[in-house]
Amino acid sequence: TLAPIPWASLNNNQLPLGVLDPDAWLTATTWTVGSVVEVAVNLLMFVPIGVFAALVLRGAWCWIAPVLLSAGIEIAQIAHPDRISDPRDLVINTSGALLGVLIVRMARRPAVTPSSLA
Questions:
Q1: What pLDDT score does 24 carry?
Q2: Quick check: is 9 in a domain?
Q3: DSSP at 5
Q4: Is residue 10 part of a domain?
Q5: Rg of the chain taking only CA atoms, in angstroms
Q6: What is residue 7's predicted lDDT score, i.e. its pLDDT?
Q7: What Cα–Cα distance (Å) separates residue 48 from each residue in 26, 43, 103, 108, 116?
Q8: Domain that holds residue 71
Q9: Which of 43, 85, 87, 104 is within CB 3.0–4.6 Å of 96 for a Cys-Cys bond?
Q10: What pTM, to 2 d.p., does this model score?
Q11: What distance in Å separates the CA atoms of residue 62 and residue 56, rounded to the nearest whole number?
């Protein structure tokens, strides 16, 4: 993400095109390096974005907009030498946002009662 983390990445191993570079998606370290805490924080940080999208946007846009936002953030980081554009972050952030959309969609579904099954 671009913010709110105020420190520079100490280990900038980003390929020149970041998430736009196919090799970034195929490198084993992309998917095997990183802590469980980092994954959890990235996932949970984007859940509210998905919730907001589901409450404000209609139709497919509530699913598309969070994906575009996450991709936009990762692409924007390519130009910043102190940030890393990481495919893993894109996948996890997008998953968190889509989880937020799913939570709202499930909460809005009509309850299934025994009388409605008959």
A1: 79
A2: no
A3: -
A4: no
A5: 17
A6: 44
A7: 29, 10, 10, 16, 32
A8: 18-26+34-107
A9: 43
A10: 0.77
A11: 8
